[in-house]
Amino acid sequence: MTVTAPPAALWHAWCVGARSVCVYLFLFSISSAVEGTNVSGVIPRKLYTSYSDLTVLVRAANQHGSAMSTVAAFNTGDIKKPPTPEVTHHSHQPLEIYWTLQCDDQGSSDQLCEVQYHTQDQQDWTQEKDILRSFLLLTPRPYTVYEFQVRCACEGPQALMSDWSSVYTAKSSESAPVKALDVWSDCGVISELSQCALMWKEMPTWLAHGKVLGYVVTLSHSNGTVEVVDMSTSEPGGLCVCQEKRCRFTPSLRGVSGVDVSVYNSQGATKPAPLALPTSDLQVPELSFTVNLKIFSLNVSWSLPPQPIENMDEYVVQYKQVGLPPTQGFDWIKVHKNDTSIILRGDFENHTAYNVSLFAVFINRSCLLASAISYSLHGLPPKVTEFKVQHISDSNVTLSWQHTSLTQSKGLILCYQLVLNNFTVYNVSGDQNYLHLLGLTSGHHQVWIRAETKAGLGPSETINFSTENGHGYTKYLVAGIIVGMLLLIIIIIIIIQMKTCAKVPDPSNSKLLQQIKLQLNSSLMAICSPLESNPKISELEVVENPFWDAKASPDGQTEGMVGEERTHKRTDDEAEKEEDADEGYSKIIDTDEEERDGGESESLLEDDHLGYEKHFMPVDV
């Protein structure tokens, strides 16, 4: 068949103004042209009839020139689209899919197919061409679900591809896991090992290379013993609790010197992952630490120290929602030792405090480098509580208040603003909870306080006080205390004196003196004037070896004469009586006691009539 080129006018009409490539399909049989892309072109159905012969020429041109293809001639009746193939089954190891296609109606039993596939968590397809009746995926990801589609063309002069088959799903076989678990611990604020909760992140199935059957925790104790704990995932509520893609080992780590955790499936187990135990013995430099918390992301950055930290393996950035129990509102991420920033993704709550910390990991040990409190979104703080006068004097006052807790502040407290008498403003740091007001004038004063965050100032709390009243109250209180102490001291002294002072015997209680007094009175009445009928005891004259006649006359007059000397020799009976008299008066009875004791006191005086003389009267030398 002889084919001539299309008219230049027609070609020029299609390609005029083309800036790149102009593709031109010229139909010789119907003298028509259509525009196509750089790889294909579509001839509208209205331009040809069934079972008609078509001759097609493709020509491309741009500003540098043009090129023409060879001529293609065919009959439209020979163009037939084969049915859609059907994927029937697959094998697990290796992963291979099989399908069927009926090409007998097309006059040929041979076929040529294309396959496209991807995993369920992917969007883009991977295509393979020139496939016959099955497709083998050479390196599938273990224990992963794949989706397949197939389309085919029956061999012939005008082969045409079928539509894509429906999606066929197949899962690859399991294999032993390779990557170690991501292990960390939530030690709270104290960072003591006994308070730490062992945690690890659940390994996804594509990393576990199969269904996770359980975990093995190896505990090395300080006394040298080793404990191996095997926890199956088929036994919920045991020693391992998994929630929100994180697992917790419930027993305490007290007395533990090393911890390793591994995961296993039906094909094997991972290499044990060691836990970096917290320690405070390591010397680390100070770092600048910056935290920027947003609703869905946590941006953390820090500066590298001037000199590299020796033996450091990596960094760990963790965050903990303030006020929640251990392991709740908690997450972490491990960072390469050369990096200085990281972004953590999560759904952070508004007006909520998070404690963000940076750790350095050294050969199964971890050390805290820096920490900061951050909020995803700041709100107005609440009213300040327990605002009161702590101390007051003539012109000075100390005010105090309670810090607003992190769970109630709704934002980081930048400062506290206090206003004295609606005039003087004091800004106090958010870490301080007191203020000294000095040099106040006497009288009534008013102070109000309110907290401030990035969102603004919160509601105010007011307090009133008077420096004059406070001074008078203090003066009277001090004076009362002093007077009370003096009274107490006086009372104590009186009690001590009453207990330590001895009683002095009353001379009138001496029976012997009473008898002598009676005798003296009787003797002196005869020689003394009536005015001296009551001589004093100081007027007695002591005479050596006096002799007294103990017998008296019935009328009361004594028979002996004073001053008369007589010789008298003491008998043994008299000496014995004097000794009994000296020893008998061992207790002096007071007049008051004599009246209280009645007859008993009188009998004692009769027996003990020489006691007073023994203590107070002169004796023979």
From TrEMBL:
Where does the record place Basic and acidic residues bias?
A: 563-572, 606-621
GO terms for cellular component: plasma membrane
Q: What is its main location?
A: membrane
Localization, per the record, is: Membrane
Annotated membrane topology is: Single-pass type I membrane protein
Which keywords describe this protein according to UniProt? Answer: Glycoprotein, Membrane, Receptor, Repeat, Signal, Transmembrane, Transmembrane helix
Q: Where is the composition biased (Acidic residues)?
A: 573-583
Q: Which residues form the Fibronectin type-III domain?
A: 81-175, 278-383
Q: Where is the signal peptide?
A: 1-36
Spans through the membrane: 476-496
Region entry Disordered: which residue ranges?
Answer: 549-621
Query: Which InterPro entries does the entry mention?
Result: FN3_dom (IPR003961), FN3_sf (IPR036116), Ig-like_fold (IPR013783), Type1_Cytokine_Rcpt_Type2 (IPR052672)
PANTHER family, per database record: INTERLEUKIN-27 RECEPTOR SUBUNIT ALPHA
Q: Which family does it belong to?
A: Belongs to the type I cytokine receptor family. Type 2 subfamily.
Record's protein name: Interleukin 12 receptor, beta 2a, like
